[in-house]
Amino acid sequence: MNIEGDQVLEEICSYALHSKDFSVSAIENAYLCFWDALACLLHGVKSEECRWRMTPLFDSPGSCVIPGTLLKADPLNASYAISCAVRWLDYNDAWLAQEWGHPSDNLGGILACTQYMERTTGEKISGLKILEWMIKAHEIQGILSLKNSLNRFGLDHVVFVRVASAAIATSILGGGEKEVMSALSNSFVDGAPLRIYRHAPATGWRKSWAAADAVRRAVWLAFMAIKGEMAYPNVLSLPQWGFSDALLRGAPIVMDRPLSQFVMENVLFKPFPAEYHSQSAIEAALELREEVLPKLEKIRRIEIHTQLPAIRIIHKQGPLHNPADRDHCLEYIVAIALLYGKVTQDLYEDEVARDPRIDALRKKMVTIEDKAYTSDYYDPEKMAVPNAIQVFFEDGTATIKKEILYPLGHPKRRNEFQKVLLQKIENSLDHLFSEERKKQILDLYLSKEKFFSKSSSELASLFVPDI
Length: 467
Description:
By secondary structure, the chain is α+β, with helices and mostly antiparallel strands. It has 22 helices and 10 strands. The chain has a 4-stranded mixed beta sheet with strand order 8-7-9-10. Strand 2 and strand 3 form a beta hairpin. Helix 4 packs antiparallel against helix 9 and helix 7 runs parallel beside helix 9. It is globular and about 75 Å long.
């Protein structure tokens, strides 16, 4: 399969509207993804910076519950708030290809729209149905990301978040082919934001709410479509004024595989709150730490061998200005793993960043692209995310070159990650829920059949803090 241009819209439209028989493995991964995203959300709402960007929206309470908070909002603002908190700590799932992204960013639109539909129609939307919507949103965003690099034009991946959320939100709201085409085409007409907020020297907080902004816009376009707003079905191909000519210098939007469940079956989870290309480097650093820590003052050089995307996204030298900058710096992340024996969100804060040992280690780091790593990264049969670290000392000795090809959240290590996920969920519940509520939540996680039968509103309400 190899389609491009406006036919892409037709394929997405058809996929969003028609029922699919998803595999057991896709449903299982969607289940893990839902709980992983909710854990990320609960961690996120504890951040003052995250709450600061959520609460100004809610002068007029609405009907959609925002998990992890006592807030309610209309579907647009609820979709923004939910996705903002899910994404805040760079802790939710990832998808790596020609374009990079985080498909669970779409969850805000799904939870907000399903709650809205339950309230307005009286019909229950089950937890299982939510997982099916998640599979579809993941698939649309992820398949678009396989062959279409927005980043090489300086544009941000949240375009594909907006596209996926627009299609799925419209379908949830009861739209048909005409309405989905309207929301889809208008999501491309919106154009694309710049990636400036993801890269030094301008890395900033917007990288944590950009996807949420895209989801909110998608939900707005979905409601407009339901009301009858017109479509622009030639938005991708129109000469001069279309998306490809105006933004991609004529490069077409293409899809080279059918929309099914490929993305959810292969999505990447994060054991550490850090940009995904660093995850295997963290594991390597932690394994070397016991040998390296007693000899910190005698380190001559630290070599980080990595893939090209990590070089492009998170290789940074010089000052780092805020936590949003630090969690996207490969060298900073490796330094705190070596020094503290862990990578947690609090280690990006200013108090920790003032530790002089961090920058002293960063200055000794040499980050090198390994061509074989880059090749394995782009190989669809491998989808590796490799890193290796070797530390050299002044006396001429060195550690082994510790290599990790597949990080803990990779599909090849899914069983290992499930143990980490349980701990991630348990930690996220602290300071928000009573012991009794924690038990209820964990019991539900351990009972998929019970989860499948819960309604969207019941699930959202379970995560309203009770302390």
